[in-house]
Amino acid sequence: DAGVTQSPTHLIKTRGQQVTLRCSPKSGHDTVSWYQQALGQGPQFIFQYYEEEERQRGNFPDRFSGHQFPNYSSELNVNALLLGDSALYLCASSLDAAAYNEQFFGPGTRLTVL
Amino acid sequence: GENVEQHPSTLSVQEGDSAVIKCTYSDSASNYFPWYKQELGKGPQLIIDIRSNVGEKKDQRIAVTLNKTAKHFSLHITETQPEDSAVYFCAASKGSNYQLIWGAGTKLIIKP
């Protein structure tokens, strides 16, 4: 049973560029959440996708957008990159019908903005 | 909204000793409390969780306790080993369509 996978593992961009990160959820899961984790800090919730819709959003600007596909995989897009966007981006999957919010994380994508 | 506080921020213990990390939460509607272990450069790994209808759960050397009245929960690791060195995060949630609210993390150092 494949766990959560993310691609790419590492990415280097320059300020002002745009980036797309990808996530495939754990088999059987239908909900994907994205987090940003700066060095030495805890994960910060960006948004959650369910049924191809953004269901919840954290305190992130509109430069951060996403998409969920019919196969439940998801993309995170960040426009007009800033130096402060450098972080580990984590994807977590879960099952909406579950009574409890058990989330499984992928290995993350390390984004460096120069 | 929900707030989760985690203590201590750093914990150093001798190999073989026990380690305890504590978290408090503010929203009495929270019903799910996971603990994640994160190693350097990797994503968080769910190591144990507890639900609001249970007071204690154990899995080999790891145990979690929940006190709903006081709104706090704790992670206990016994017989610590070098591979237990990592950052541990607690979290709380009200349900599957609510976000996880995270603690700030505890860096656990196991001294040989």
Short overview:
The complex is a heterodimer of chains A (114) and B (112). Chain A is mainly β.
Helix content of chain A: under 10%
Mean pLDDT across the residues of chain A is 94
Radius of gyration of chain B: 13 Å
- The quaternary structure here is heterodimer
Strand and helix order of chain B: EEEEEEEEEEE
SS-derived structural category of chain B: mainly beta
Mean pLDDT of chain B: 94
Which segments of chain A are poorly predicted (pLDDT under 50) over 5 or more consecutive residues? none
Instruction: Please give the count of helices of chain B.
Output: 0
**How many β-strand runs of chain A?**
11
Secondary-structure-based class of chain A equals: mainly beta
Shape of chain B: globular
Span between termini of chain A: 37 Å
Distance between the termini of chain B: 41 Å
Q: What is the gyration radius of chain A calculated from CA atoms? A: 13 Å
Please work out how many helical segments of chain A DSSP would assign.
0
Major sheet of chain A = 7 strands, mixed
Helix and strand sequence of chain A: EEEEEEEEEEE
Q: What fraction strand of chain B?
A: over 45%
Pair with the biggest interface = A-B, 30 and 25 residues
Tell me the major beta sheet of chain B: 6 strands, mixed
